[in-house]
Amino acid sequence: MTELPPRIEPPAPPKPDAPVGRRERKKAQTRKALADAALRLFLERGYEQVGVKEIADAADVSVTTLFKHFAGKEALVFDQDDDIEAALVAAVRDRAPGQSVLQALRAYVLLTEEHAAHHDFSAFSRLVTETPALREYAQRMWMRHETALARAIADAVGAPEDDITCAALAHFALASRTLTEQHPVPRRATEEIFALLERGWEAVRPRS
């Protein structure tokens, strides 16, 4: 049986120590069983060669149950989507005193890169990068949190919820991940992108 590699997921904010009921534990166990079964089958046979019924059978649940937990086959590979949004919002909302929103987002993006660099993500990364459907889903998944992040930024700076500058910052901060993923030195690329965001477009105009 294929040993499951860790998934590349941004570190999530600490969760409150609230009691978890039996129903919630059961749902979490089912979700994990489905995600683990999917990843194992994808690694063994390839993403395109595995159907949702096989995944449901491997987790000993029905296809209907599978779709109660996941919107589609791609989502089974990225099973911590909600945690990503919570972490992004927390990075802005809970930033250190004196730290700007942009500095907080830069620190968080760099943290996700360090998180990936210190674990063996090669098998998972190869699965995603070599599968167009997963690669595209990963990009869409990250950008799907744009609205929530824009609202968090607006709240942090006291701007209207629909402020266009806050929306722009959220968009470009999230899009930086897509640009740096294939860069030979992701950290340097991230630093350069956020330096551009901090200084503005004037920083790259030709000097006379």
Write up what this structure looks like.
- This protein is an all-alpha fold and 208 residues long.
- 63% of the residues lie in helices and 0% in strands.
- The protein has helices at 22-45, 52-58, 63-69, 81-93, 101-117, 122-129, 132-143, 146-157, 164-180, 186-199.
- α9 (164-180) packs antiparallel against α10.
- The longest helix has 24 residues, at 22-45.
- Residues 13-18 have low confidence and may be disordered.
SSE diagram, text form:
Elements: H1 22-45, H2 52-58, H3 63-69, H4 81-93, H5 101-117, H6 122-129, H7 132-143, H8 146-157, H9 164-180, H10 186-199
Helix pairs in contact: 1-2, 4-8, 5-10, 8-9, 9-10
Shape: globular
List unreliable stretches of 5+ residues.
Answer: 13-18
How far from one another are the termini?
63 Å
Task: Profile the largest sheet.
Answer: none
Q: Helices and strands: which structural class?
A: mainly alpha
Helix proportion = 55-70%
For the record, the count of structural domains works out to 2
Helical run tally: 10
The first-level CATH class of the largest domain is given as Mainly Alpha
The count of β-strands is 0
